Amino acid sequence: xxxxxNIAAYxxxxxxxxxxLRAKMLDxxxxxxxxxxxxxxxxxxxxxxAGGENEMRGFLEWLRSDPRFQTMQAKESWSDTQPFKKMLIxxxxxxxxxxxxxxxxxxxxxxxxxxxxxxxxxxRGTDDLGRPVVMVDTRNAFEVxxxxxxxxxxxxxxxxxxxxxxxxxxKEALAGKTLVSFCTGGIxxxxxxxxxxxxGMDHSYQLEGGILKxxxxxGAAHYKGSCFVFDEREALEPNLETxxxxxxxxxxxxxx
Length: 256
What we know:
The protein has 256 residues and is α/β, with parallel strands linked by helices. Helices cover 31% and strands 24% of the residues.
């Protein structure tokens, strides 16, 4: 049985005294020999961590004892070895940079769709009202190369700040369709979903929990390839196993 528990988690919530919070979190992580990266911002937290199961669950219990983090949910996967080299906690201006201050997920989320409900829509090709469903990939171009949903719309962007202009340019072409934006773990879609509504794309949703949650609940249905993750595992297959090393080598050679 794989012994290292990997988690990906985020929460949009107002935070202050970030320097003190960083110090406390770092002490808790180091005491449990956890490794990975935590981003702390005034708008919330984003983290990718790995370590022993008991230690990881202990840290999450400690974190949720703070009322601000009580509702935080974590996506889980397992590995044979520790995929991170060190423990880092960084202070940032935004959890995920978009450069649109009016987009504030803490004040209200975009409409979301659960993975199994999305599978129903994709099986049928339409939503419950008969509208064609278009999957909108909000990730960067190199991430899309690892894998994406069948026939998904993507924009070959290099950074998330390019997404608003890219989707705005498609507004007329996508009129009358139901849009489902998605990313690795859902965090980018917290902002992309709100932005799409803001510009008048009323029939838009975000995939709850992103690709990783879809893999966990549905598997490979309607998805081609793997999903890039931000640690040394590089990418995960729909069964949440690490991408085979020979496949990883071929992909590296293809992009070099």
